[in-house]
Write a structure and sequence with these properties.
The structure is a single chain. The protein is an all-alpha fold and 446 residues long. It contains 22 helices and no strands. The longest helix has 23 residues.
């Protein structure tokens, strides 16, 4: 393992990610913090030269992050999924699904369980989950005297965890790309490590999202609250005259996403696009992986060898087309309104696109050497050298979890946390294993 004193950049290799994390925690402005970290990283690589710093920042880092084919595919998938959500929202499909469930939400327990179950159904994006459920379920939970604090907990603690463990979500594309970046930073052979396979194999170890989803269901069913949540629930139950209309209305500040009338609110306008998206992704994975292995390869093996980026793009396009055609055929909106809804839905994903771009560029700053032979700051190697034997490899997952928890809590952004720490963590784990072969440190579970 490299000695810290022999590292070409030493402590300076830690400065860009440390500054980005510290500023994000202090200011809660993730985009600005990431950009400042990028700027510092470019300056360090340029040895302080202003002109060289601008060249590295614009050409090597930002343009490199945008022009990468895999990154462009992630952008396409994320924006198309956002467009699909916008069309579904405009058609009133999600409201129709919620209306169908009102017949069973006759008490507080059933109301909370309904929010939880609907959160599991909207698994393809945490933003869409929060946007769709937060506003549409509010009148229903108000009528049942469920506090706004409880609704926020039910929605938020379901949205991100379910997107983090779903096989089809906007998080999948982002996480696979970050895993790919981390593996490339280590110099791991593509034949030994498939980013999509690594992603799938991590699902059973995602204890936080799995336990969070279970805990939301337990709280909803048991009706057991404590701390400030118990205070909020007691306050809401004690309030008089809180009965609102049971018919949920979409609380959305974007006119292009508001359904026109009650007649268009059919539940299948929301369910069908999701089914089509999942089916298309699975079909493309199987088809693109058909010739990669033996003739008697199982479906799972073919899916593992398939092209995940192509599958996600094809699935999102198929889902968007299904949502648009069904909405138009159902009379939910004219073609022009459908296009405006798709554009508004895609625009709502732009903050995630910007964060991803800056995070990918920051990952390029901290990596060792890319495919073109251009060197970064080798941050993972320096961290591993600093750790030495002080932190056993077995404790590395705990250390990464604690760091991630602090950053996520302080910044309020899971996307930014993963984007900053995932490539670094993979590189650090590789260094901690002394670059052992894939057969020694990693065995797929399926």
């Amino acid at each position: 393992m490299l000695n810290p004193s022999d590292h070409p950049y030493g402590f300076w290799s830690l400065v860009p990610p440390l500054v980005a994390i510290t500023l994000a925690i202090a200011t809660r402005r993730v985009v600005v913090s990431l950009f400042i970290g990028l700027l510092l990283g470019a300056a360090i690589l340029a040895d302080g030269s202003p002109l060289a710093t601008l060249v590295i920042l614009s050409r090597d880092l930002l343009w490199g992050a945008i022009a990468d084919v895999a990154h462009l595919q992630v952008f396409a998938f994320t924006l198309t999924m956002g467009a699909m959500v916008g069309v579904m929202q405009r058609s009133g499909g999600m409201l129709g699904l919620i209306n169908r469930m009102q017949h069973v939400t006759t008490n507080r327990r059933r109301g909370q369980v309904s929010v939880w179950l609907l959160g599991l159904i909207v698994f393809f994006d945490d933003y869409a989950n929060t946007l769709l459920l937060g506003g549409t379920m509010r009148p229903l939970t108000d009528r049942l005297r469920i506090s706004r604090e409880k609704l926020a907990y039910l929605v938020d603690s379901t949205a991100a965890p379910v997107a983090g463990v779903a096989l089809v979500s906007t998080w999948v594309a982002m996480e696979i790309s970050l895993i790919d970046d981390g593996l490339r930073a280590t110099g791991a052979a593509a034949d030994d490590f498939s980013p999509s396979q690594v992603f799938v194999d991590t699902i059973v170890y995602r204890f936080y999202p799995l336990l969070a989803l279970a805990f939301v269901g337990i709280v909803a069913v048991s009706q057991r609250d404590f701390g400030p949540m118990l205070t909020a629930e007691r306050r809401t139950l004690a309030a008089q005259g809180a009965g609102e209309s049971a018919a949920p209305e979409l609380h959305d500040d974007v006119p292009a996403l508001r359904p026109e009338n009650e007649r268009t609110r059919a539940w299948y306008l929301a369910v069908a696009p999701i089914v089509v998206t999942v089916a298309a992704i699975l079909w493309v994975l199987i088809e693109t992986g058909g010739g990669a292995g033996a003739a008697d390869a199982s479906i799972w093996q073919r899916m593992n060898e398939g092209d995940p980026y192509l599958a996600m793009i094809a699935g999102s396009v198929a889902g968007l087309a299904c949502a648009a055609l069904l909405g138009y055929a159902h009379g939910a909106f004219p073609p022009g309104d459908g296009l405006r809804a798709a554009a508004a839905g895609a625009w709502q994903m732009m903050p995630a696109i910007v964060i991803l771009t800056f995070a990918w560029a920051l990952a390029a700053v901290t990596r060792s050497t890319d495919e073109a032979g251009q060197g970064g700051l080798q941050t993972g190697a320096y961290l591993a050298a600093l750790m030495g034997d002080a932190v056993p490899a077995a404790l590395l997952p705990l250390v990464v979890f604690l760091c991630s928890a602090v950053v996520a809590f302080c910044t309020g952004s899971s996307w930014a946390t993963m984007a900053i720490l995932t490539p670094l963590s993979i590189s650090l784990a590789w260094q901690a294993s002394d670059g052992a072969g894939a057969g020694d440190v990693y065995k797929p579970i399926m």
